[in-house]
Amino acid sequence: MKLASYFLSSIFIKLSRIMTAAVLYLFLGIGALHAQSNIPTTAEYVLVTEFETGRILMEKQKQAPMKPASMAKIMTSYVVFSRIKDGSLALDDQIVVSEKAWKMGGSRSFLKPGTRYSIKELLYGVIVQSGNDAAVVLAEGLAGTEENFAIEMNLTAQKLGMKNSNFTNATGWPDTELTTTAEDLNILATALIRDFPPESYPELYPIFKVKSYTLNDIKQGNRNPLLYGKSAAENGVDGLKTGYTDESGYGLTASAEKNGLRVVMVLNGMKSKKERSSESARLMDFILREFKNYKFFASGTKVDEADVWLGRAGKVGLVAEGDVSRVLSRAERMKTEIVVSWMNPVSAPIQKGQKIGELAVRMDGKIVDKIALAADRDVEQLGMFDRLGAALSYLILGASSVPDSQGE
User: 254 with 319, same domain?
Assistant: First the structure.
């Protein structure tokens, strides 16, 4: 009994030491996951996020009430897209222009009263031309009245988690009850891109990057300034929508994808078209230059190897059970550490896929993400006499007595 106790005690001490040694530190760079809110901007309301994870890259008054103006038409588009997705509406379906729609002021598609237009034409009118008349036609065609359509807009907002928005019309036309936030518009834009991916719905989201559209022999250009020049060519800007009223100021909800990183940006409360154009381009350039999607390990990649205790192989690979990637700024990249840990050696038998370790991403000493590490193959256990011999050898001579490969 004493011998057995001594044997178990010795093994525990050695395993504890080996386990401590089997912690791999990879300093890759990352600080705290704080938004870059100290970047000066003339926009009153700002929220920039990374599309896949929703990580905030920049913010300013993201939950403060504001007016969306024509950025409300993103919700109008989302509702129409949803009808097309569920099959209750088709792009070649037609709707008649009402007197109310024809009389709409502000930006218009110059639709003719009593004339039928296809859903496709009306979507281009709403998204590219920012036509208030086209938005009202769609609202009346889908819900009977614009008021009924606004109810559907608000139900959709609730489903998407837009907690601080209230839509009163399909256009963003000034209304005391109309309200949203930069955060909610960001949620909406993200959902639209996610729920109607271009590869599945090539006739829907890609409308947002069309630079001009002609309807009734009247050609109008897209008001999104980032679709032109360097931003479109180098930054991969492909949407979404501008907005302006006296109360809201000049706003823009935009998205861009570059080098595998998609960002969604909402700006509002700027004082002129020129300011909206220059400020949105400056911030988009900065974000896409400063942040990158760093892919440290792909799912299935062998991260390290563990020693095997009493097995027919001396080593077993540790593979990541998921992708290990983070969107980081350059400054954060220099402070990141990835910690790989496992109980070493791993006792046989071992089954392929068996969890035997863990990879943790640490930022400022805090774990922010974990990925399981699994065995990359089966390892059989040694026979009884071989196990006894290996255990005694380990007890007397230490870890150095265990060969790298046993039974192979």
Answer: no
